[in-house]
Amino acid sequence: MESSAQSQRFQQYDRKQGHRFKGCLEVVPVSLHSVAFSMLSKPKNRKVAILLALSGTVVPIVGLHKFYLGQPVWGIFYLLLAWTPIPHIASAIEGVWYLSQSQTDFDQNFNPMLVVEAMPDVSPATVDPKLVGAIAEALRQLDNLRQDGLISEYEFEQKRRQLLDRIA
C-alpha cells in the first residue's frame, strides 16, 4: 500500500518537473553506515587536506581536515578544544606536515587502498621447486601440530612466517 503511494508521488513529481522515466522507480533504503563507509573509502586529496588544515589556523571551526581524512574522533576532539589555541596550532603543524609529504607518503598514510607495494620480481628459475615442496610439507606438519593443540596459534604463525620467508 505504501509503495503505491510512493510511486504516485514520484509520478506527480515527474509530471511537474517534466521528466519521463521509463520503467519503475524504486526506493532503496540506504544505511548511514554504508554512506559513511563509501565516503571513507574514497581517496583523499592531499591539497584539500592541506587547505582544510591550514584554514583551521584562522577560522574558528577547526578539525575539518580530520573529518575529511576519516578520523572523526580526532575531529570531535579538535572541535571540543576549539576555544583554546591548541587545535589551531596542531592544525598549522599538520598542514605543514601534509605540505612537506610527498604524494606517495600521503597516500600511504591516508589512502591505504591506493598503495600498491611493489612485489619483488621472482622468476620461476630463482625458486627451487624442491625447497618449495619441502616448505609446503613442513607447513602441513606444522598445521597438524596446531590442530592437535601441541602448539599455539601464535607459535604456528611465527613458524609459518619463518618458513615462507625462506622462499622469498
Concise account of the structure shown:
With 168 residues, this protein is an all-alpha fold. The chain has nine helices and no strands.
What does this molecule look like?
Helix 3 packs antiparallel against helix 6 (86-100). 64% of the residues lie in helices and 0% in strands. The protein contains nine helices and no strands. The chain has 168 residues and is an all-alpha fold.
Low-confidence stretches: 19-28, 32-37
What integer value in Å does the Rg equal? 27 Å
Element order: H for helix, E for strand: HHHHHHHHH
Structural class: mainly alpha
Number of strands: 0
- Could you report the average pLDDT, rounded to the nearest whole number? 75
Biggest sheet overview: none
Relative helix content: 55-70%
What is the approximate shape? elongated
Number of helices: 9
Strand proportion, as a percent range, falls in under 5%
Instruction: For the record, give the distance between the C-alpha atoms at the N and C termini, rounded to a whole number.
Output: 63 Å
